[in-house]
Design brief:
The longest helix is centred in the C-terminal third of the chain and has 20 residues. With about 350 residues, the chain is α/β, with parallel strands linked by helices. It has twelve helices and 15 strands. The protein has two domains: about 140 residues, Rossmann fold, CATH 3.40.50; about 180 residues, Dihydrodipicolinate Reductase, domain 2, CATH 3.30.360.10. The structure holds nicotinamide-adenine-dinucleotide.
């Protein structure tokens, strides 16, 4: 490896920018290649964040063939994965955004290939790196969780007719829906701090959001009831139809002697414990920087222990949200892991 970690990007949209803003502050990083099916986006990020001579591509295989990379960021929508295989074949460590896929079979094949080739991976569940999350995880290891409530509640998507055609988020067959795409963060946190989810039963609400766009077909809201391996129960929710306000991101965990109340995108924590003064741990505003530095250090030092969510773990979170989608269709509870 050269002195700096030479990185390439597959997918040059919104989240790629968030990572690049963090990565260019890291003196050990050199962004040398940018790939997007929309070449203009690749060009734009290369000119803003690329090292001198950075190359642009509209095809990931071409990027891998024509550049020497020490690591890759895969920042494509859930339906557009597959570039992982080329990275794995070449033994190149990769960071992949959540959710890791939309298709279970492909994700399982990627996980198996990662395992075979022993490639270092990291999944973009950045909330695992928060101090508050780690504190709660430690407390719950001694004081088992019993009830879990949380999710994401937002407004009806506002999209211009010209933009709707490019908007994958509002299309179920592309994003997997809000629970799969967004509440995946909450599902992952529940797994990280409370242990495995073993069964889900989901209920969708549709037909309330009117006139968003002709291709809008995701749920307006959903509720997913969960059972955990330790016997705890929970209810997680998604809504993109609450225009009166009062929504937001939350996760509340109730154990016998511990109540953990996370609020906001930044997951600020209010910790209540029987017989102890309440504790407040604000969420870190620069969480992408923390997550990216952990990945880059892991690549540089060949030390996977710095990564809090490898691909195999991201796959387990994927199974829960895919199970929720299956349950929304069938009306039946679905056991996890999937068969
Ligand atoms: N960790 C987080 O908090 C967070 C926040 C936002 C998005 N995300 C995730 O990041 C992923 C991307 O989201 P985004 O907001 O950047 O979307 P986006 O639409 O802004 O960008 C995605 C980009 O990928 C490109 N693309 C699509 N298919 C491609 C392919 N096969 N090869 C190369 N490029 C391709 C698109 O042209 C687009 O430029 C999603 O899975 C999303 O869930 C994570």
């Amino acid at each position: 490896m050269s002195e700096k970690v030479r990185i390439g990007f597959v997918g040059c949209g919104g989240i790629a920018v968030a990572h690049l803003k963090a990565l260019v502050k890291n003196p050990n990083v050199e962004p040398v290649a940018f790939c997007d099916v929309n070449l203009e986006r690749a060009r734009s990020l290369a000119s803003q964040y690329g090292a001198a001579g950075a190359m642009v591509f509209n095809n990931a295989d071409e990027m891998f063939r024509n550049t020497v990379l020490d690591a890759v960021y895969i920042c494509v929508p859930p339906f557009a994965h597959g570039a992982e295989f080329e990275a794995i074949d070449r033994g190149i460590p990769f960071f992949v955004e959540k959710p890791v896929n939309l298709y279970f079979e492909q994700a399982r094949e990627i996980a198996a290939a990662v395992e075979r080739k022993r490639v270092l991976t990291s999944v973009g569940y950045m909330n695992r790196y928060r101090k508050g999350v780690q504190r709660v995880r430690e407390l719950l290891s001694q004081d088992p969780p019993i009830l879990v409530l949380g999710g994401w509640i937002g407004q009806t998507p506002r999209i211009t007719p010209e933009a709707a055609i490019y908007n994958w988020w509002i299309v179920k067959e592309k994003s997997g829906g809000q629970f799969h795409e967004q509440v995946t963060h909450t599902v992952d946190l529940v797994r990280f701090v409370c242990g495995e989810i073993v069964e889900v039963q989901a209920y969708p609400a549709k037909g309330f959001n009117k006139g968003v766009a002709p291709n809008y077909n995701i749920e307006d809201a959903s509720v997913v009831n969960i059972k955990l391996a330790n016997g705890a129960v929970g209810s997680l929710w998604a809504s993109c139809s609450a225009n009166g306000g009062g929504g937001g991101v939350s996760l509340s965990i109730y154990a016998g002697n511990t109540t953990a109340l996370f609020t906001g995108w930044e997951h600020s924590l209010r910790l209540l414990r029987a017989g102890v003064e309440p504790e407040e741990i604000p969420g870190e505003p620069n969480i992408f920087e923390i997550e990216d530095n952990a990945f880059i250090d892991a690549v540089r030092l060949k030390d996977a222990s710095r990564i809090l969510c490898p691909y195999s773990d991201g796959l387990k979170t994927l199974e829960v949200t895919l199970a929720a989608n299956m349950s929304m269709l069938s009306g039946q509870p679905v056991k996890v892991p999937l068969k």
